[in-house]
Amino acid sequence: GGRPPPPSPVGPGGRGLAGRNRCTKAESGGLACFLPKMTPVTRQEVLGLYRKIFRIAKKWQSASGRTEETLQEKEYIKNEAKTLFRKNKHVTDPELIKQCIEECQARIEIGLHYNIPYPRPIHLPPMGLAHKQGRTLRHQEKLRKISKPIYLKSHDDVS
């Protein structure tokens, strides 16, 4: 017959095709299992950020220098990273992935600069954004959401 044989269920190294979607021991944080639909470059960038966060957490020292605070902040950094990366594991829209990467980078930079692992809050008065005559509170809420800095986009979803 002129038909090619069906694809073999055994992948490279005899591991089988199912082995491709499983985590390796080095990726046991779970993130690599969640990145099947990204381009290789984006996948590497996300994994790099994930590893960078855990390296930062490992070396983190609180501003006060107290051991108890340092341990709490290290734990917060790790838990926040795990929660947000797992929350966004099914994101496939390249634009949304880009926004998540930008938020992650911004939070890393701000955290390192101010030596505070928690997102810096913003303070807007309840009706402090300009609005046109006759607009409602819903419009204010929309303006507040739009004006939220990139490093706080996912903060309300998690905390």
TrEMBL record:
One Pfam family cited in the UniProt record for this chain: Complex1_LYR
Residue ranges annotated for the Complex 1 LYR protein domain, each copy included: 44-109
Q: Which GO terms describe its cellular component?
A: mitochondrion
The positions making up the signal sequence are: none
**Family of this protein:** Belongs to the complex I LYR family.
**Which PANTHER family does the UniProt record give?**
LYR MOTIF-CONTAINING PROTEIN 1
What is the official name of this protein in its record? LYR motif containing 1
Species this chain originates from = Hypotaenidia okinawae
